[in-house]
Amino acid sequence: MLSSTDAGSRRESHHTEIAATASTSSPGRASDRTDRKTTVPKVSNNNAQNFLNGLEGDFKLKHLGLLGVLVWFLFLHVVGIFFFTKGFLLTRMVLENKSSCDVLPLADTSVKKSDGCWHKKSFDKAVVLIIDALRYDFTVPFTSDVDAESDPLFYNNIPVLYETAVNTPENAFLLPFIADPPTTTLQRLKGLTTGTLPTFVDAGSNFAGTAIDEDNIVAQLRAAGKTLVQLGDDTWQSLFPDYFDANLTRPYDSFNVWDLHTVDNGVTEHLLPLLHPANATKWDVVFGHYLGVDHAGHRYGPNHPAMATKLQQMDKLIRDVMAKLDDKTLLVVMGDHGMDQKGDHGGESDDEVNAALWMYSKKGIFGRTSEENVKPPAQASNRFIPQVDLVPTLSLLLGIPIPFNNLGSPIEEAFAGPNGNNWKNLVTVNRLTSAQIKRYQQEYASVRGAEEGNSLQSIELWNAAENDWQNIPWVGKSNPSTLRPVYDSYRHYQRNTLQVCRSLWAKFDEWSMAQGIAILLAAIVLLVFYARGIRTGQTVLNNALLTSVGAGTGVGAISGALLVLIGVVASPLIEESVLFAATGGILSASWSLFSRPKQLTVPLPKTLWGWLAIVFTVAQSVGFASNSYTIWEDEILLFFLSTFGVLAGVSSMRQKLTADRVLGVYHSILFVILGRVASMSRLCREEQMPFCRSTYYSSATSSTSAPWQLIIPLILAFVLPTVVKSFYAGSKSYQGAAPLWIGSAFRLGLFLVAVFWVLEGADDGEWLPMSKETLKSSRVFLAQLVLALAFVAGTTAFIYTKPCISINVSQGNNDPEAKGKTPSFSSAGRTTVTILGFGNVYGTRYFLLVVNFCLGIILMQKPMGQGAMGLLLWQILSLLEILDTNGLVTSNSSIGPIILAVLGSFYYFKTGHQATLSSIQWESAFIPLSSVQYPWSPILVVLNTFGPQILTAVAVPLTVLWKRPLQLSEEATSTSKASNPAIRILSDAIQAASTYILYFATINVATTMWAGHLRRHLMLYRIFSPRFMMGAAVLSVVDIVLILFSVAGVRWSILSVGDIFGW
Amino acid sequence: MVSSPASPTATGAMSAIHVNNNSSSSSSSSSSSSNSGGGPPPILKSSPPVRILPSQLARIYSFAHPAAVLLGFAVRFPQLVNDPVSEMLNALPFLAASQVVFAIICLPPAGGSLDNTPGSSSSGATPSGTSSSSSNIILRPGRPARRKGGSGGSGGAGAGVGGGVLGGLGGKVIPSLLALILTALLATPVLAILLVLFGAPFTTHHAQTALCAAHMALLTAVPLVYVHGVDGAVWREVWGAGRPADAVWGAALGTCVGAWLGAVPIPLDWDRPWQAFPITILAGAYLGFAAGTLLGRTKWVYGKRLRFAEEGELADKKRE
Fold first, then answer.
1. CB contacts < 8 Å between A and B, how many?
2. What pLDDT digit, counting tens, does each position of A6-47 carry?
3. Number of folded domains in chain B?
4. Residue B130 belongs to what domain range?
5. Residue B137 placed within a domain
6. Which residues contact A564 (CB under 8 A, 6 or more apart)?
7. Contacts of A678 in chain B (CB under 8 A)
8. Is residue B12 part of a domain?
9. CB pair distance less than 8 Å for B14 and A15
10. Which end of chain A is more exposed for a tag (fewer CB within 10 A), N or C?
11. B277–chain A nearest CA distance, Å
12. Check: complex ipTM more than 0.85
């Protein structure tokens, strides 16, 4: 099939025959120029030179102008994203302060050390059992209105909690236990142990890791010298590394939602022996985390026999534990969140936040302050307590300090005494808790600054409560009628503070979000017209556009600043100034564009390809409204790519020329197959389970590569340069610097990468008899060498290298075609200039930059991702051939850049990433460095994370350069510089670049709007927020890469071609 | 293995070095913009759009058939959801039979003989407003001979004489068999590969993929092969999606587009059993088949060709 395409050479190899006058000196540029002007009266060389310099200068100037426009779009994107983010992603400062046993929050109280730290302890030991997703209504009796047949299966299966609370109220109580969203286990465990509210970004020192660095009850227990045991869900291990007794602790994988029993049986198996009196001294606090109920919910939903069985099993377990419990031990059973009707959780619907809390002890110290409180509430909406209340309650019961960040209140039932009238105790614990909250509040305000001034108001409540306390007459200190109001005012203060914090940390600033979205939308509209709706060419328009943008931005910035200074608006100077600058720029740019409608066209496509580009972009953007389409984005992108490939094949079948047909079909098939092969590399996100199997790492639970995967880098080193070479050879362009660049340097780099990863694997698997240090230092050196080769040497060489052509000059040829063209010189001495690689002179020259980036990015990927990147490079080349054979290069079709963008997005998922924070491969920062170094480490992580998008962004200009015929200006006609062909290339390149940006800008604005719109959605924190963050990050990265490398690279390419062939 | 094919000879002396940019004539000489990627397919010597046979039965049945196929699919849908593999397998012979019956009753078989019956030719030349097809009709005289060479060599010739129902039966059996064989041997594997390329599971669900492909092949390929045989020109048009619209091509295109759209609901987290892999695709294919069969015959669409680009769109490039 391949060999049959000799007609393809029609375009690829251009052996050019030029009859040259003998008088011209050099075979290079000057001779080319003069003999091309056969019909033109001779112009003196001097004039021509000036003219050429003028063209070159004009080109450079226009190029700068285009960069200016791109920078302005970047500015708009960043401003829009900033304002949306400011209102949307709420952050909380994590204070590092720890409560200490010795430093009480109040000066006037003291407790004997042996009795506990801040308050006299009630228990020495505790068993804390978390039944994941134990919803409150599971635990209370349900009497149906109709027949029992239709009762949901989850009712009345775990009666022990309710029974004990009703029958022996002094031994047990049961209350609705309301979770703060997000109701995911990890976030809930943070809340349950720190006593504070989760926000999306807990801005602490340790952003990457998951370990809790705030003060928390586990750390306090540990500090108090208790032996802690953890059984079940291994999330605890990542949150509290090294806190638990290594011998007794049994973590289990929490990932396998389909397994209902392994974790539960494991916990029970290890829990019951611990309760045996013989083992009583081995531990102080046990945290058991059961997952069966949660998994049954995820797998089957709550209304399923499996759920009933599971709940009955839990019921029996609790009874067993109760039977074995001794007097000194407190038993706590709780759900960390509920589940919705389908058994899932994560959001903030009632069913998801309604968990249950039950405490039990044989001591009989619990009480109710009033009769109607004896029975647990029938609905979760009555007498509920927030989950933060667990922390102070447990701390005070066990006699340890309340963790510093706590915002909860002591649970009334736990401190009211068996008769429910121990008001003195209630006031004491609430005063302590309030004092700690106040301490935290002051500390937070001093760190964060006056910005969160709202909190001052609750200080007054504290003062009022303190005042009440001080004013109690000494004799009245055991009198309920005097103590109760004091208790109430402390409670009031606590709840008020909780409310204030909740609104600070969980309230969206809709106005700011709207501002951000408005700016992003305006940027899209302008970009649509700039990319697809300009009739006259972007370069022509640039001066007017930039001038008005500059003016608008300047006026906006100043007026914004003035508004703040005058005091009309009360927000930070810079923010307001930037906002007005963006608005001013948008308005003036719109005026500049739309005031002259002649230069615009309706930016609707006229071809099937154009519509296809729109369908891909818009369909995906709409799809982000659904969590399913967001989760399955990788498959959808494959679907789109295959659709394009098949349509490209169909379109190729329609080509008139056999060569185009065969080449087009071949590359279409290749394109589709390569995409499908790449799709085998997957890293599944949790939500894709169980319909997805991860192949990126050696197993689903590891993040290291399998040994067989180490062969991939080696294969790449052998195959990839050959692949690139074959595409160059197709147009006889494997000339000039290309053999050295692709055949040697690129291959050498890839080989070094392979060695690097073998060393890495050897380090992990300990195959080589070398010390870890030797391995590491040699590895780091290799990586730095590759990066230097790719970016330092590569970029320098890219700027100075000549086009990939070879020029031969020979005398006295008699080519018939040349004769026809240049009859006037046929008698003179003839020089034949043969230029190999002429047909793809722009494309092959520019592609060297892509090769550089490919090498650098490949180094930063895991072996599987390297394979994917190799396939991406191949697919890009294949795409370029498709574009060429279907005449899409010179027609400025939008499909080329859009497909490149889709490719970039697709390979993002194929390099082991997902639209989740947890899939960021932080360790890649240490590939060429042994310690964190700014700014390099973040750049390296970006190179790893967004490598595919970066590579496709660098490749964007190729959609208009690949096999673009060389066009040169004619002096006779080109009195205006606008017809300079180099300028036209520039226009085309900027059009392709803006189209490429348009895809990511559309995706970004869509994910932004959906995240904003769905801010109350169950899946906000798990799905929509991360996707929004990814979209914003990708857009910024792509903007920057296009400005710094792609469009800049066009400059060097065209300059170097111009040096050889003139302008 | 790799390689965009290399050109063996340095042919085609390039005159483009004297190129001047702005005239459209230069674009024709400067290679790549010449092949406009767009317009109607270049191959014109291909058969015109197919008309349903003129008999009363054919007309009625041509409407009844897509409806019946769709109805059958709808009736068996619960079983399909319940056990996709065995239901698809069981339905296969019925679908094959009904497609063949449809072809025999309603469509002119390959070999072209039945086309020449008086009724048909008159209807073929109808001035029914299908102006775009009229240019193709001029080609007809030359067609039968070429066709006979193409496929109908053996049976078609004999059958061509009578053109009556009885005599036609023989001429219809061969194309039917050919249609079934090619459907099984070629269309099904091709479609199965396409399904996998579009993201169908590669290591699992082989039965589902194969059966889904078989159903789609029966819907698309049987009428096409029955009518056109192995006429190379027609098939080149088919691969280029450049056939003029008619019932047969409408059915094929409709099936494919329907199946493409059928993939849309699969990722949704509705947890419905019918979201399992081949079911929605198959449903889309059936719906697209019925819609395409009926739509392809309507006078608004009949005879029109799918275009990738507006004609002449590339000529007026946006700027000079």
1. 225
2. 333 344 344 444 333 333 333 333 333 333 333 333 444 566
3. 1
4. 56-295
5. yes
6. A570, A571, A572, A573, A576, A577
7. none
8. no
9. yes
10. N
11. 11
12. no
